[in-house]
Specification:
Pfam families: Pyr_redox_2, Pyr_redox_dim. Its cofactor is FAD. Keywords: FAD, Flavoprotein, NAD, Nucleotide-binding. GO terms for molecular function: nucleotide binding; oxidoreductase activity. This protein is an alpha/beta fold and 454 residues long. It has three domains: 206 residues, FAD/NAD(P)-binding domain (3-Layer(bba) Sandwich), CATH 3.50.50.60; 111 residues, FAD/NAD(P)-binding domain (3-Layer(bba) Sandwich); 106 residues, FAD/NAD-linked reductase, C-terminal dimerisation domain (Enolase-like, domain 1, 2-Layer Sandwich), CATH 3.30.390. The protein has a five-stranded parallel sheet, with helices on one face. The chain has a five-stranded antiparallel sheet with strand order 20-21-24-23-22, with helices on both faces. The longest helix is centred in the C-terminal third of the chain and has 20 residues. The radius of gyration is 23 Å and the shape is globular. The protein starts with 5 loop residues before the first strand and ends in a 5-residue tail after the last helix. The structure holds flavin-adenine dinucleotide (FAD) and nicotinamide-adenine-dinucleotide. Flavin-adenine dinucleotide (FAD) binds next to helix 1, strand 2, helix 2, helix 3 and helix 9.
């Protein structure tokens, strides 16, 4: 029985962040990781890895939009070179992860952790009774129940493909499918289809903006179908037949899983530790404490948004809470009010705060400034046919929600995110953005805010 200060389960971004924070504070920390390739989804097969594909997607999409406006020939891209460039980056992550942790005095232990009781964690033959335990076990694609679901390629498999098939079909109309479908349509696939089973795709995003993105994608080769229920998938000679419950057979060369991710909690024996969870993940309070007072949960395994920097913030929050329990200082609760989300499609769809549907549902009064199908010079110059925005403010002019569809959604939403955090009014934001670098995506912000100034 070993008495460490802290056992962290999982060496993804959340687990590493909490481990470093606590090691720096002088805690004796062990990180337990079951994978032979530690480092986590974000680096190895998520945010970072997929950006190799996004950068080329942007290049191709932009050059297609500018054909005849200065671009004479579309750049020839090599899928295998993109994969190789990505692999050059990802191949170093596991050893860097272990070296980084060990170099900071953190013990790294390979193995699968599970709870024995409320205070005890077992990893192989080793049993720990630490003062605190942090669960950071991430998420994985959820199992799908239709026949032939084993034929689906998961997101990590997509990023490892040797070549890009001619026809690709994505199951689910969420983050993964939209991003990867936009990559596929620009990087070599000829027919790209998204099949969503509900009546709308990209549920968390503003419906009007999503409609614009769907139109933009359609123009560039991404077909989206909603209300589709899949009965089975079968394969013959490398061709996949997706049988829909309407009786239609949709033929394709590859089917990709983009139907949602569930928390990795099944093997942890959470019942033994008195830890509650639900379909979305482990239940936590605003300090990331679970229903077991000495156990915290952070990152994708918690019932909170599954985003990399949310995972990191949760890790910092948990670490600060642990430290505060000994120092008696007050540690700050996490606040999800201004979490930005960006879809790395082309154009990018970005949001912060509430959607118009949410405000209507919650009966919150609001004013809006919006333009869909935007044709400002900024976007005409780059041949973009679909760009748009929607800014929602309360009666005092404070921003309740902001939504942007353009080639630099991530940049613009950052400014709007700060406005939400600082609780500034549209008029104040207008004033501080007049002297923006001009002309730029950001300098357009004042035109978006103008209708809200009265
Ligand atoms: C394709 C894709 C693209 C994405 N793109 C973005 C993006 O652009 N921006 C963004 O913000 N987010 C993005 N995300 C989400 C982001 O990757 C996650 O929110 C983030 O990686 C979660 O980190 P984590 O540390 O919680 O989990 P993980 O990185 O999954 O780490 C969990 C670790 O725990 C280990 N583990 C699990 N169970 C056990 C056990 N019992 N014992 C020991 N170890 C265990 C796992 O092996 C793993 O190493 C993307 C996700 C995907 C799939
Ligand atoms: N840019 C980013 O920040 C980014 C990128 C990728 C993933 N992520 C994170 O990873 C999470 C998981 O992504 P995801 O795209 O797998 O899930 P998601 O939750 O975003 O979307 C899943 C979609 O699949 C649909 N669906 C479920 N079952 C289906 C079925 N049987 N047939 C057809 N459609 C079905 C759902 O209705 C939903 O629209 C995201 O919620 C996000 O937090 C973030």
């Amino acid at each position: 029985m070993k008495k460490m200060d802290v056992v962290v389960i999982g060496a993804g971004t959340a687990g590493q962040t909490v481990a470093y924070d606590l090691a720096v504070e002088g805690y004796e920390v062990v990180v337990v990781e079951k994978s032979e390739t530690p480092g986590g989804v974000c680096s190895l097969a998520g945010c970072q890895a997929k950006k190799y594909f996004y950068e080329l997607t942007e290049l191709v999409a932009k050059s297609r939009h500018l054909a005849g406006k200065g671009v004479v020939a579309e750049p020839e891209v090599s899928w295998s070179q993109i994969v190789a460039a990505k692999n050059e980056f990802t191949s170093k992550i596991p050893s860097q992860t272990v070296a980084g942790l060990k170099g900071t005095g953190i013990r790294y232990l390979e193995g699968q952790a599970k709870f024995v009781n409320a205070e005890t964690v077992q990893v192989g033959d080793e049993v720990f009774t630490p003062r605190f335990i942090v669960i950071a076990t991430g998420a994985r694609p959820m199992a799908l129940s239709f026949a032939g679901a084993e034929h689906l390629v998961k997101s990590d498999g997509f990023l490892e493909m040797k070549q890009i098939p001619r026809r690709m079909t994505f199951i689910g109309g969420g983050f993964v499918s939209f991003e990867f479908a936009h990559f596929a349509a620009r990087l070599g696939a000829e027919q790209v289809t998204i099949l969503e089973n509900t009546d709308r795709v990209l549920g968390p995003f503003d419906a009007d903006m999503v409609d614009q993105l769907v139109m933009a994608g359609r123009k560039d080769g991404v077909e989206v179908r909603t209300g589709i229920s899949i009965t089975s998938i079968s394969e013959q000679n490398g061709v996949y037949s997706v049988l829909l419950d309407s009786g239609e057979i949709h033929e394709t060369d590859l089917v990709v899983h983009g139907a949602g991710r569930i928390p990795n909690i099944d093997f942890l024996n959470l019942e033994a530790a008195g830890i509650n969870w639900n379909r979305r993940g482990i239940e936590v309070d605003e300090l990331m404490r679970t229903t077991n007072n000495n156990v915290y949960a952070v990152g994708d395994c918690a019932a909170t948004p599954q985003l990399a920097r949310v995972a990191d913030m949760e890790a910092h929050t948990a670490a600060a809470s642990i430290v505060s329990r000994e120092t008696g200082e007050v540690s700050l609760p996490i606040d999800y009010e201004a979490v930005p989300a960006v879809l790395f499609t082309y154009p990018q769809l970005a949001m912060v705060g509430k959607t118009e549907e949410q405000l209507q549902r919650d009966k919150i009064p609001y004013w809006k400034s919006t333009e869909l199908d935007l044709s400002w010079p900024t976007y005409r110059r780059i041949g973009m046919k679909h760009a748009g925005y929607k800014i929602l403010v309360d009666n005092d002019g404070r921003i309740l929600g902001a939504h942007v569809l353009c080639d630099n959604g991530s940049g613009l939403i950052n400014t709007l995110k700060q406005a939400v955090i600082d609780s500034v009014t549209a008029a104040e934001l207008y004033q501080t953005n007049i002297m923006s670098p001009y002309p730029s995506r950001e300098s357009d912000l004042i035109y978006m805010l103008e209708p809200l100034l009265d």
